[in-house]
Amino acid sequence: MNRRTAYxxxxxxxxxGLAVYLxxxxxxxxxxxxxxxxxxxxxxxxxxxxVGGARDARRSRRRRRKELGLCASCGYSLTxxxxxxxxxxxxxVGAARDPAD
Length: 101
Ligand SMILES: [Zn+2]
Prior knowledge:
binds zinc ion, mainly alpha, 2 helices, elongated
């Protein structure tokens, strides 16, 4: 198990523990909240979860590509590349950053 995997496992365990602690309390508040508050929370949480999930998937894909020696932006193999620039998309090798990061 490498450090990244151990960190990911720790994050999952912490979030699970937080969920187990908070969920009953949130449900108790949720049950007595006015309908408009419930609707507003649902309307806010769904897009935020979608954006967060997409961002996490993008970060994970870029990290996996870097670990495999591929361009983080387009996935092109950078084996033997000495120019410091991806020949497929022009991204700087090793310095390519996602604007959403
Ligand atoms: Zn590329």
